[in-house]
Amino acid sequence: MMPKTDHGAPDMQATESRFRWCWGNGHVMAELAAIDPVVAIELSTMAACLGRIHARGEAVAAAAPASVTVQPSKIAVISVSGPLTPRGSWFGSSLAGIASQATRAADDPDVAAIVGDVDSPGGTVHGTAEAAAAFAYAASKKPVIACVNTLAASAAYWIASQASEIVMTPSADVGSIGAMAMHVDYSKALEEAGINVTMIRSEQSPRKNEAHPFGPLSDEARAYVQGRINDAGADFIKAVAGGRRVSQAKVREEFGQGRMFGAKEAISRGMADRVATLDQVIAGLVANAPAARTATRRRSALAFE
After folding, report:
1. Strand, coil or helix: what is 74?
2. What span, in angstroms and rounded, lies between the C-alpha atoms of 98 and 138?
3. Listed residue (250, 253, 247, 271) closest to 261, CA to CA
4. What is the pLDDT confidence band of residue 66, given thresholds at 50, 70 and 90?
5. Phi and psi dihedrals of 14, rounded to 5?
6. Alpha helices in the chain (DSSP H)
7. pTM
8. Is-contact 165 273, C-beta < 8 A?
9. C-alpha–C-alpha distance, residues 166 and 274, integer Å
């Protein structure tokens, strides 16, 4: 029986709700068919219609090609500029952002190549290894060109060295391989100003902030800082050697030991590959776009693997 209102008339809203509830529930449809033959006729007609629609969709999906030809059509440009810090600033790029952009571009099937637009004096040790690793990952999947436009020093060169190719603009400089820390002793200036600074540490942490600027650096503190700097420098050299496909000995002996070089000298030493402007690099990539390739299509989502 169809639901009735208080006045005895059929309650169409309740009936419609029951019909909607029946689409995916064959058991409920069978119960309704047993109660009211009129409802059974309407439901069976609708079910047959839905069945034909579903069958037609399956036939179209079966006839669709398993793969389609796609042509990567984009060139991703990643800015590596200014002082590099983990989260970035008004003055320089974010190392975390560089890593994220490189990874996304590497995994994007529409991106044919990646260009790093590099103009940076370097930055912090923290975050640099991760950004460089992202460039290396991208270079393992597609062409990555680091265009030094016009400075790749220290951390910026670490990142650039992981690209497939390093291109320098005519007036560019690269290098400053290595790590450093700076300690400033203000104790005499403070003494002359009549200022005395007393450091009070928790007894469990006598070495906390041992490299503070309010007094001379102790021998023990100097040795500790030197060890940390040596470790970072060794990681730098290892990464550059891997990225440039040369020995670590070559990097230590021939890549300047911390010095900077112009384009001609850098190329002769193996620190870079050729001279070109950013516009020339991009134009070259456009002119030599890769041939179309085949990618598997997921029919359900129309996405590419």
Report:
1. strand
2. 12
3. 271
4. low
5. -65, -40
6. 12-22, 26-35, 37-63, 95-107, 128-139, 155-160, 187-192, 219-244, 248-254, 263-269, 278-287
7. 0.73
8. yes
9. 7
